Structures
1.
Amino acid sequence: MDTESNEKLERWPQVSRGSIEKLKQWLATQPHLPQVQEHEIALFVHANYGDLEATQRTMENYYTLRTSYRECFADRDIFNKALQTALSIIITMCLDLWMRLEGNANGHIMLMDMHGMHLSHMTKLNMGAAKKHMFYVPEALPIRLKQIHFINVVPFMNQIMFLTKPFMRKDVQEMINMHVNLDTLHQAVPIESLPNEYGGNGGSFEELESKHICL
């Protein structure tokens, strides 16, 4: 086993060597899937709490969607002007970067700031892309999604949810929390995990951006 895999297995004791070997054998029978390194397999096992059947489904979804969902995964030049305006692409890139640099975690909390969003933006909503993205995150990414928070909620949030809820699993819908102010957000998310601008002490937007650009 490579050094990186050893580090992952030490960090996540529920990921056993036996699980890695079984999944390697399964992958050998799946010619449409790429070769996957052991430490990457460990990420998927951890994200699925050691359930090998669920891990196989997640891996299948992950690699299949990355092939078919080319508008989000092909030509990902972060300095491309069009790319910088595509929210779903930026989110998937950030999650990919997190997984490669940090490995997995016991849970992920997503925070969406709706400040500056207007009703006219709804006319530009690509429902096809939204549907794919809302399938990809809970069904394909090797993360443990725990909560989704929207802050600075806009008056037409109900219309947005009406359009997007049919694409979400029920358990994902139950993760969603709406906040019109930061007080309720602070009750749900640790202060140390929030940027200074959101009343936390995790660093300013500028500091966090500089840190991740350097990475």
2.
Amino acid sequence: MNKFPSFCFSHLIRIQQSLKEKGFEIFQPFPISRYHDYYLKTRELSKNTMQKNINPYERLSSDNDHCLAVLIGNTKSLWPHFTTHLKKVKEVGKNPLDQYVVETVNSILQQELSEEHHSPSYTVYFSHEFEGNHPRVAIQVAGQVSGVAYYENEVSYLSFHPQYGPWFAFRAVICFKHVKEELLEEFTTLFRDPLNSMSQVFKDIATNENMSEQYLEGLTMRMKAQFKNQLNVAMNSICSEDAQLEWIKLRDIPHEILENEANSTLSKLGREWKQHRYNTAQMMYHYFKNNCFQE
């Protein structure tokens, strides 16, 4: 019998709502076994072999292969919450956004779960944390296997969301180690199918299931070709500031293509794909390490 029977949907909903109020819109539960299976399939190795030759980021919650995980992330809507928080901080650290993420996530988890007679056993893997030379979690892999975004790991190494395009960020994965076996089954209605191709993203973003596979393949190939050209420009930029501008352009390529594809379909329905590109202050912070925190 599980020692935490009271952990249920209501806990996740409360945590999700509390995080959203702090600027974290992306909240997606998924079984952690998908994350581990990704590496098993990629390496085509047996589970036992993989455990002997493992990098830290390839395995989470090693004591339980079948627990509940939740992916947390944000869009541009995080920024006003972050800047408001900074106004209350006396000393701004070296990485204030990372600090805000850690403090907010940990505080909400402690607050929402402290009322339980038995506190659930969980571990938070933040995307900016490293163990040696390896990140603690391959956050973009978590994004793909959870069904939130497709991870294009051949050319651009960007992730693509059907609603936000490339303009979002994954911040953490929470592993609830005690939610396993029969309890995990209670959360299956919250799970999404993994996004395993760019074609799936195009279909979702344009809400058009009638796109031919040939058309989608051509669209993907065209985008990758633009990626390669822009990647070459960015990597060969001599001036540091110019290079950062070129990296921003790399991210704009899929944004523009996704926006055009979405609006070509949605316009017929009297709708429009919303603009989710980061604002200027966010760009300055992420790409130029400029801490002029203006909304």
